[in-house]
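Question thread 4412

I'm putting together a teaching handout and wanted feedback from people who do this every day. The idea is simple: show students a protein as raw sequence, then show them the C-alpha cells that encode its fold, then repeat with a second protein so they can compare. Below is the first pair exactly as I plan to print it.
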Amino acid sequence: MKLVVTEEQRELRDALRRFFADRSPAAEVRRLMETAEGHDPGVWRLMAEQLGLQGLAIAEEHGGAGFGVRELAVVFEEMGRAVVCSPFLATITAAAALGAGEGGHDLLAGLADGSVIGTLAVAEDGGSWDPASVRATFEDGVLRGAKNFVLDGRVADLVLVAARGGDGVGVYAVEDAAGLVRQVLPTLDQTRRLARIELDGAAARRVGGPEALARALDVAAVALAAEQLGGAQRTLDMTVEYAKVRHQFGRPIGSFQAVKHRCADMFVMVESARSAVLNAAAAADESPGELPAAAALAQAYCSEAFFHTAGEAIQLHGGIGFTWEHDAHLYFKRAQSSRELFGSPDRHRERLAALAGLTGAAAAP
C-alpha cells in the first residue's frame, strides 16, 4: 500500500482549509451549537455543489466522484481541525453501508448531491456498537425496537437501521418516517448532535447484510480517526503558538524544558496518529481484508491521541484554557465524546487482539 499524500490530496487539503476557515470559524461554530439543526444548511449545500464532498467516495455510476477513503480522510482531518458542525460523518457512514450492500443503490444519488442527509443507527440502550448486541427486529416489512446515540438522527432524511431479520443482522432503509419517533439527546459535545429513535412499526426494506454493516462501521472508524487527527493537530498547533508568546519570569514558557517535553510528546502522538490514519485509509481502498484490523488500530490510537493533546492544550494554556471564551474546550469536548463513538478505545483494542488471534474475544466492530 502507498502510504503517501499525493499532490492532488494536498491541493484538496488546501482548498478545504480555506473553505472551513471562511465558513466555519470559531464564532460560527459557537453560533451553530445553539441552533436546533446543529449545522448550516447553506454550507451543507456549498459542500455538495462547490466541493462535491458528499459524493467524493461514492461510485460514479451512483452520482458520485468515485474517489476513495484516502480522500475522505483528508476531508475529515480538515473538518476536525475546524470542529465543523455538520451531518457529514453520519451521511458518509450511511453511504458506506449502501455502497457495500446488495440493495439500496438508488438511494446513493441523493446522498451524493447533498439533497439527502443520511445516518446509520446501530447502538441501542446498552451503548454498544457491536452488531452482536443489536436487538431491534425486522419482520413483516416493519422495524421494531429502539436506537440510541444516532448521529444527526433528528435531521436525517434517510435512516438506515441495523436490525435482526430472518438471516441475522442486516441493514434496513426506513421508507416511512411516520414510524419513527425521534428524541434529541443532551450531549457533552455541543458541536455534534445525537438522537434516540423509537422504531414503532416503521416500514423498511433490506439494503445490506452483515458485510455491509461491518464495512460501514470500519469506514466510519477510519473517518472518525482522521477527524480526531485533525483535532489533535490543531490543539498541538495552538499550544505551540501560545508557548511562544506567553511569558513567565521574563521568557517565553516554550523555552522551559518541562513545556518543551510536553509539546514534544504531543507531537509524537499526532504523527503516530497520522501514520495510523494513512494506513487505515489505504487499507480501505486497496486491501479490504486488512481494513478491520487497521480501522481498529487507528480508532483506538487516534482516540487516545486527541484526548491527550486536547487535555494538554488546556493545561499548557493555563487559566485561560479553562474558560468558555477560549476554543480549547471545544476540542476537549469533541475529543471526550468521540472516543466513545463507534466503540471505546478499549473495545477497539480488544477487537484488534481478537483479529490477531491473541484472545478469544469477538472480532465484530
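The second pair follows. I'd like the answer to focus on this one:
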Amino acid sequence: MPKNNPNKYAEVYSVMSDINDESLQKLSPNEQPLAKRQPLNMYIKASTVEKRWQAIDCEQAKQQLLDQTTERCMSMYQKNIENFIGTVKLPVGIAGPLRVNGLFAQDDYFVPLATTEAALVASYNRGALLISEAGGCSAMLLNEGVCRTPGFAFETLVQAGQFVAWATTQIDTFTEITESTSNHLTLKDLKINIEGNHVYLIFDYLTGDASGQNMVTIATNAVLEYITEHSPTKAKYSFLDANLSGDKKATMQSLNGVRGKKVTAEVHISAELVKKRLHTTPERMADFWRMSSVGGVLSGSVGVQGHYANGLAALYIACGQDAACVAESAVGVTRMELNDDGSLYASVTLPNLMVGTVGGGTGLPSQQANLQLLGLAGNGNARALAEVCAGLCLAGELSMIGAFCAGHFAKAHRKLAR
C-alpha cells in the first residue's frame, strides 16, 4: 500500500505556487493589433493560398504540405475545406482479406486503414485472417436513420402543449418540405419530447448512400423556418438542434436505438483455430470478456467494447468519412461466449455507424481510391460499407482480446512500435 502523503494535493498543484504578479500579468487580455492576418476569402484560389503562406511564413512546412501534386489538384478540395493551405499525408495499410457474409456485403475485403499507430493494422489484419479462416463473419444491417432535434422554448407548459397539438397535424407538410430539399432524403419518423415548457422535435431521416449530416441539417432548417412563420403558438426562442440528436457524442439514446446504421456481426471459431492463431483458448477469452464487461460497467462506459474507435477512425480517415463521428460510431457491445462444443462465439453490435459512399469527403482522390479498393465506391454501397465496418470491429476485438489472453499485448507493441 502507498504511504499516506498529506501533501499529495499540494504536489499536484505545485506549479501554482510559483505564480506571482509578473506571471499573472501574462494572463491578462492582450489588445495589441494582430501582426499577421490571412485573407478573408476562405475559398481555394492560388493567390489566396499563397497569401496564407506569406502570413504563416514557414517555408519548410510549405514544402511538405503544398507539394506539387497537391498544388495541381487543390481545386478538387473546394467543397471540403476552408482556408486551405495543403494536405497531410498519412500512411495507409490494409487488413485482410476479411470475409464478410452479409445481407449487403458479400466478399473478401482488403480494408484500407490510415493511421500513425504502430501495431494497429497488424492487429486488425490478424483478426481479419482469423475470421476468414473460420468461414467469415455473418453481418446484418438492422436499422438506419439520422436525426436532427430542433428545440423550442415557450412561456408555459400550456403553450408547449398547444404547439405540440399543432405540430402533430403538420407531419404531411413537414414531409413535403424536408423531402423537397434533397432527392435522396426521406422523413422516416417524427417523435416529440416535452420537458417543462421546452419541446424537442425529433426528425428521423433516411439519407440513402450519404452519411447525411449536412442533408438532414438543411432539411430540418427548412422545417424550422416554416414553423417559425406558421405556428399559431410562437416560441420565445428556438434552435436548429438542441443536443438531443446524439450528434458526434456517445449517448445511451443512440445505444438503444440507431444513429446512422445499426449493424451486428458474429463468428464461430473452433478451439483449434483459436489456439493456432491467437495462442489461447475460447474459455480464457470468454473469461476476459466477462471481467472486462464488468470493468466497462464500473467505468460508466456507454456500451461495452474494447477498441472500436481504433479501426473505425483509421477506416473513416482512409475512406473520406466524417472522422468526428467516431465519437458516436464507436459505441456498441462486444460479446464472447463458450459454445456447447467448446468453440468460441463472438459478436459485435454497433448502432451508430455514420458512414456513406457518396458525398462529403468520399469523392476526394485518395479517399475515392480507398473506397474503390474496397469495391464500395458510389451509389448503392453504404449498407455494405456498414457491414464491413462491423466485421472490421469484430476482427479488432478478437485480436486484442486474444493478445491479452495470451500475454502478447505489450510484446506486440514493444516489437512494432519501437
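Top answer:
Good format. For the second protein you could add a caption like this: The mean pLDDT is 93. The longest helix spans residues 382-406.
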